[in-house]
Specification:
Length: about 400
Amino acid sequence: MKPRMLLFFLLYALMSCTHIKPSAPQLKPESLLIKLDDLSYRAEILNRMQIKNDSKMLVYALKKAYGGRKFISKDKLRKVVDKIEGFNFPGLTPNEFCDLIGKALLELPDNHIHARYEGKLCGGKDFQAHGQVGENINAGKNSPWSISEKDGIKIISIVGMPSRKSKIWNGYTEALKKLRNKNIKAYIIDLRGNDGGDDTRGHELSAYFFGQDAPSFEDKIIKSTTPETKAIRYNSKILRVYYLNKKGKSIPQYLKQDVSELKAEFEIAVKNKDHPDKIIKLNGPSYDAKKAIKKPIFILIDKACASSCESIIADFKGHPYAKLVGENSGGFVQFGNMGQLLLKKSGVIVQMASDFWQYKDRKWREFVGFTPDIKIPKGTDAYKATLKLVESSK
């Protein structure tokens, strides 16, 4: 090309730059990280580009960060992605945008995934499942757990699953050590209303009844290890720090440590070229009658027993003396270890799992939950019904 002609094209390109429509920025793992300053921004009305930017970030996370992306049908995921990519119109409030996202995510067979804005769930999602077989005997008390005894019945209540590192569990291990008593005729474990959290203390509970780790009802956990997954896991802790700061509460040392460790994991993942799934094979020991507690164990469950609460149920599936009493549990079982994605133009937060759980029997229990051995009619208190059952079995 002649020098004069080349100069002409360069000048034309330069003049044309002002007419190029802005496009959504290219995303990379660092784009997903939450900075505390990001949480202070709120647009009242979203324009077309803001909606496009946030939609693109969500699609990127679904394809790269979401731990369930390989375990649901490609058609369903594609349908949801297509719907989100179609959000290409201006003039939405963040609430309206959040509702569109929430409704799109409802099509995924995953109970945990959801969108929320300013703490409220969007798109018709409802986590406030209410059991129909009575309230947990520990509901409304300051501690998430209690262990007591009544008429020769040991009663263990766990109504929540805070971090295993929290001081709120002080005394729990010592109380579990006293579970074995020849004068105890039965045990009641009340899990009604327990919406999950950190399942560690639940596994500790089951171990005392088995006299060792519980046999594994699950086959394996498949963990996504991409830097995008590490980013949303890091975000989950940063958000906790933010909310504690907002309430004027101090940040526990264990939470500071979690933030530091997850940030380090993210940085390592960014440096690595390959990110194969981490597969944890779950091969618990077989039931050993010589070690286990051999007294009737009644586990009270309801629709509000979800996620890590259902991990406790799974532990006891291998105990021949344990029976589930109540109604089907919530069915938050195939996906775990939640991460958080902040859509930075709208302030919408999307929760998504980093892990997938597979059962040995290969049954799909999401939305279904665990079915009780002893079904209790709706409106009947499972605790009172169990007390009568124990009394009649003398």
